[in-house]
Amino acid sequence: MTKRRSRSVVEIFGFSFLDVICCGFGAVLLLLVISRTGGEPEEAAPASDATSELRQTYFALNSERDAKLEEQDRLSQTLDASIQLIGLKQSELDALRRSLATARDTLDVLNTASEQTATARMTLDARMARISPTSRDEVGGIPVDSDYVIFVIDTSGSMQQIWSRVRAEVESILNIHPKVKGIQIMNDMGQYMFAERSNAWIPDTETTRQLIQRQMASWTAYSNSSPVEGLQKAIADFYDPSRNISIYVLGDEFSGQYTEPVLESIRKVNTVGADGVKKVRIHGIGFTTMKGPTVRNFAKLMRQVALENDGTFLALE
Predict the structure, then answer these.
(1) Distance between CA 294 and CA 141 in Å, rounded?
(2) What is the chain's alpha carbon radius of gyration, rounded to the nearest angstrom?
(3) What is the DSSP letter of 223?
(4) Would you call 250 helix, strand, or coil by DSSP?
(5) Planar angle of CA 185, 187, 191, nearest 5 degrees
(6) Looking at the chain, which terminus has fewer C-beta neighbours within 10 angstroms, N or C?
(7) Contact, 283 vs 313, CB < 8 A?
(8) What pTM, to 2 d.p., does this model score?
């Protein structure tokens, strides 16, 4: 009888194989544990500290930059204000330089005319000294009892040529009126020298008299060499029955052909009622620096105007 051989069973997943597998997994786990606990924490902490320090530095730099920008804006505003102030001061300096140049020019003109002014003043003073006053209110034949004085001045080209003498005569006339209540100046066309004070009396002060001389130095206005318009406007604008007013007409020639129409027009505007009382005194100052019929006509006209209107006529040679 044949004996059967028993077939052995081969087991793939035996204990040895499982042991190998477990050891392999254990080694992997051990490596993972070693890799996480060995070096990472020590390196991660310094990295976190460096990041925090960089962040703080970044914020600090941003704050410093913002402060610098604000400071730059303030400095820029200050610079703009300084530039504007410099421009304003430069404009003021330029204006002062122009004023100084004008003052120097005026001084040159005054120095040039000083000799003529002194001569004209001495001439008038000598003429006044030769004429004996009839009362304490009369100087050189001119009544000086008026409280208000108006100048009507010919501003034509011929008068401009002797303008320093004209200014000197205005000053002399004011000197014989030491104190009045009001002054006004216009040309023979009725144009006021002080436009801003039209139709109003200028108070008599030392400053006013100095201002008149300064203003006359550069005063030029159109003139037709006839006092009619200026006299009519002066009487119309300033006549007041309660005021004692004198008008001084300064000129060198009369451009009209006939004097009678002028005299009649003045009679109409300067007469109060039928008794012939005059509203204002009218004086005449004639500059006879030229020769010709127009000069003679002015002297003839103003001599008659002064005679009819309680005034005095003086011819200055």
Answers:
(1) 25
(2) 54
(3) -
(4) strand
(5) 85
(6) N
(7) yes
(8) 0.57
Alpha helices in 176-285 (DSSP H): 206-217, 228-238, 260-270
Label residue 316 by pLDDT band (50, 70, 90).
confident
Please tell me whether residue 149 adopts helix, strand or coil conformation. strand
- Do the beta carbons of residue 145 and residue 243 sit within 8 Å? no
- Tell me which amino acid residue 231 is: L
* Phi, psi dihedral angles at 13 (to 5 degrees): -90, 75
208 and 202 Cβ atoms separated by less than 8 Å: yes
Say if residue 71's pLDDT is above 80. yes
Return the closest-CA partner of residue 317 out of 114, 176, 120: 120
Q: Say if residues 284 and 257 touch (Cβ distance below 8 Å).
A: no
Determine the Cα–Cα distance for residues 92 and 86; give it in Å rounded to an integer: 10
Query: What are the φ and ψ backbone dihedral angles of 23, each rounded to 5 degrees?
Result: -65, -40
5-55 pLDDT, tens digit each = 555 555 555 556 666 677 777 777 777 777 665 554 444 455 577 778 877
Residue 36: both structure tokens together? 């996480």
Token pair of 275, please?
């008794």
Distances (CA, A) of 249 to 117, 118, 149: 19, 21, 11
